[in-house]
């Protein structure tokens, strides 16, 4: 008998407050850039905007596999992939200006241990502070050049 693998609890996920840049760091970076800025060049320094995204998916679990554990694994994969700091294809955060697509999510979830197949995926814009989803699910979410995704209230059914 082997115990199931330990999964990161939801509280270990990146919180919006964790992404705030300290005032002294913001000031130091701004001053350093200003020292090296070419005359006549305007440079704007600011924190990224975080856009909430919520994925709702239905998966079919392989026969004989623990459905709840499989769904939990799928949720963890979604939260990890869309993390603005440690997500993305190389684990260094979601790439700037890269949209989120349903085929990307299908590929992620299809690779989860215990998932037989992915039945449906919808992407929702979501309020990053309240978790409230937009009323309509989408197949494609563009990412604005000064923004990063922030994962909010994913569901795997």
- Would you identify the regions where 5 or more consecutive residues have pLDDT less than 50? 1-11
Total strands: 6
Strand-pairing-aware structural class: alpha/beta
Helicity range: 10-25%
Order of helices and strands: HEHEHEEEE
What's the overall average pLDDT, rounded? 89
The major pleated sheet works out as: 4 strands, mixed
| Through-space gap between termini | 27 Å
Report Rg. 19 Å
**Any idea what the shape is?**
elongated
β-strand percent reads 15-25%
SS element count, helices: 3
Topology overview:
Elements: H1 23-36, E1 49-61, H2 67-81, E2 100-101, H3 102-110, E3 115-126, E4 140-141, E5 147-151, E6 155-156
Parallel strand pairs: 1-5, 1-6
Antiparallel strand pairs: 1-3, 2-4
Structural commentary:
The chain is an alpha/beta fold. The protein has helices spanning 23-36, 67-81, 102-110, and strands at 49-61, 100-101, 115-126, 140-141, 147-151, 155-156. The chain has three helices and six strands; from the N terminus they run αβαβαββββ.
Structure described in brief:
This protein has helices at residues 23-36, 67-81, 102-110; strands at 49-61, 100-101, 115-126, 140-141, 147-151, 155-156. It is of the alpha/beta class and 157 residues long. The strands form two sheets. Strands 1, 3, 5 and 6 form a four-stranded mixed β-sheet that branches. Strands 2-4 form a two-stranded antiparallel sheet.
Main traits of this protein?
157 residues, alpha/beta, four-stranded mixed β-sheet, disordered N terminus
